[in-house]
Amino acid sequence: MSSTLLVSSPPSMKSHPKSPSKSLLGGGVNAIMQTMVELFSAQMFEWGWVHCDPHPGNILIRPSPIHPTRPQVVLLDHGLYVSLSEDFRREWVNLWRAMLEGDYEGVDNVVKGWGMGLPDLMASFTLMRPTVLKKGRRKKQDGEHNHEREKSLTQYEMSVVMKQKLREFLQDTDRMPKELIFLSKNMRMVQGNQ
After folding, report:
1. Which residue has the higher pLDDT, 185 or 27?
2. Which residues contact 95 (CB under 8 A, 6 or more apart)?
3. What pTM does this model have?
4. Rounded to an integer, what distance in angstroms lies between the CA atom of residue 63 and that of residue 42?
C-alpha cells in the first residue's frame, strides 16, 4: 500500500477548484528548494520523523492547489523513515546552532557526548563545506595541527595522519547516534536534488 505526504507553501491543504494543470511556478528552482528545505527541516527539528530516501524518483513537484504559482512537494515511498528521540533532536538543534554561530566549544560539547571528536570535521561534514569554528576555541599549543607541515608530507605520511584523524573523529562508535547516518543521507540527497 502506498501513501503520500504533501507539503506546500502555505501549509493549508484545501483543494482549489480552479487549479490550472500548466501553471508556471513562481520562483523556479529556488522556490522548490526552499519548500523542500523547510519540509525536511520540520521533519528533523519539529516532527521527529524523517523521510530518509528523498531521491528524485520519490519527490513530485506540482503547483499548490491553493496558490498555483507556488510549489507543492509530494513525498512518495514512505518505506524508510527514522524516528528521532526528543533528546537527540535537542542535541541536533544544539549542534546546528553552534555550527551556525561558529562555536567550537558548543559543537565540541555535542560531539563529545556522541563519542566523537574533531568539531571542525563534524561541522564540515554536516554543513557540507570546509568549516573552521573559531568562537570558544582555545589557543594552539606547541605541536598541535600545522597545515604548513602537512603540505610537505609524503603520500604514506598523509595516510597515517588521516588514519589518526579518523580515530580522533570516531572515538567511541558505540555512543555515536545511528540517526546521524540517516540524517546525513537525507541532507545529501536533498542537496543533490538541486
Report:
1. 185
2. 106, 107, 110, 111, 122, 126
3. 0.73
4. 21
Q: 53, 77, 172, 174: which is the annotated catalytic residue?
A: 53
> Which pLDDT value is given to residue 11?
45
**Rounded mean pLDDT of 7-33?**
58
Count of domains for the chain? 2
- Assess whether 142 carries a catalytic annotation: no
Domain boundary among 61, 83, 105: 83
**Percentage with pLDDT > 90 across the chain:** 53
Residue whose grid cell is 504559482: 69
Pick from 8-22, 83-97, 109-123, 160-174: least confident? 8-22
Comparing CA positions, the residue from 187, 189, 186 lying closest to residue 51 is 186
Is residue 182 domain-shared with residue 116, that is, in the same domain?
yes
Question: In terms of domains, do 178 and 165 share one?
Answer: yes
